[in-house]
Amino acid sequence: MNIFQNKLRMITTTLLLAGLCTVCLTGCSTPIKGSADKPSVTIPSTSNTGGTPDKSGGTTPSSSEPTQPAPQPDKSPTDYPHDPAKTPDSITVLVNKQSNALPDGYRPADLYDDPNLPFIFSGHDEKRLMRKPAAEALEKLFAGAKKDGILLAGVSGFRSYELQKSLFDGYVQQQGEAEARRYSAVPGHSEHQTGLAIDVSGSTGACAAENCFGDTQEAKWLAKHAYEYGFIIRYPQGKEAITGYAYESWHLRYVGLELAKTLNDKGLTMEEYFAGK
To answer: Where are the beta strands (DSSP E) in the chain?
Structure first.
């Protein structure tokens, strides 16, 4: 009897345990966590932060990344038209004592009287005229100087062949031809006739077109900053034997930003540059 009771207890216990296991497996609302229950998370790769893969296995930069401009080849003197007889309208034309003369009666077609440019004289005068690209660049130069506390004004821009002839002949009568040629151009060889050159001074006109202008703050500012606006000091100090003219701190010549920077960086005159120095 005891043996039968013991077996009955064992069967009953087994059935109870089986029922409990079934309830736990089918009715529990909170599963038991194990390694298989961890969420599947994709961790992005940190090896490609600059864009999307390209066909070569590298990466294509994203649109937000800056790109470097392609290097530009250096220009040579032959890239700048400068013969007065063939290309008088070129902003890089070289006009001097040795060059070909400008064409007979040459007068630029785009001469412009910029109303925003101050001059040391009032009223209309042909000396206010410049070629439009040069006038617009000079307006920016004057504005840049003003920001630095330097007030500039024009003295003499365009000169016709006839006016240059009258001036030159007068200097010859006063001082002789040899002396006149040191600072005045023979008609047909004047930069002023191109409409790209202008004499400037301080707004008061003090030392206008005189040697004393070279000692002024205005002249020092021009020597340092003119090239930033496409101008050069055409007849620099110490280069009289090369340019053929005495130092003129007030004489600006427009040649464009590119050539102006090249001449400034290399410390060359137009004569030296076009001679391949």
So the answer is: 51-53, 59-61, 111-112, 130-131, 152-156, 197-202, 231-235, 248-254
